[in-house]
Design a protein that fits this description.
- The protein is globular, with a radius of gyration of 13 Å.
- α3 (19-33) crosses α4 and α3 (19-33) packs across α5.
- It has 7 helices and no strands.
- The protein has helices spanning 2-9, 11-15, 19-33, 40-61, 71-90, 94-112, 121-135.
- Residues 1-5 have low confidence and may be disordered.
- It is an all-alpha fold and 136 residues long.
- The chain has a single domain, classed as YidB-like (Arc Repressor Mutant, subunit A).
């Protein structure tokens, strides 16, 4: 579980400091598992790739260094409707949702793809479940 503990100690750990931050983490994990209509991890990656952010998205899956994104790039990739859904579900503002996702998604995706490949649905759900247990 070392990779998941690393994640909890990074920006994810900072976001978990507050109640709404923890909700945002749960919503982000749900997005990766298929909640929200983006098509789970594969669909989300496709959104970023088709929005001109392929280099960044590919870096999160690869075993190398992760390239960062900002809140505006998250909005561009997943759209205002999804940002609104995330904000409402997490109980945060649109800006907090977009900024939080910009911090969370590269780390979450990186930790869910440790071998440099997107796992099949069963493997992804197992990894999300392990992460959820770790985070409580």
């Amino acid at each position: 579980m070392g990779m998941l503990e690393d994640l909890a100690g990074g920006a994810l750990g900072k976001l978990l400091g507050g109640g709404n931050g923890a909700k945002l983490v749960q919503v982000a994990m749900g997005m990766l598992g298929g909640a929200g209509g983006l098509g789970g991890l594969s669909g989300l990656l496709s959104k970023f790739q088709s929005s001109g952010l392929q280099e960044q998205a590919d870096s999160w899956v690869s075993t190398g260094e992760n390239k960062g994104i900002n809140a505006d790039q998250v909005r561009q990739a997943i759209g205002d409707d999804e940002i609104d859904r995330v904000a409402n579900e997490a109980g945060v503002s649109r800006d907090e949702a977009a900024g939080g996702l910009a911090e969370l998604l590269p780390q979450l995706i990186d930790k869910l793809t440790p071998d440099g490949n997107v796992p099949d649905e069963g493997g992804l759900m197992d990894r999300l479940g392990s992460l959820g247990k770790l985070l409580g």
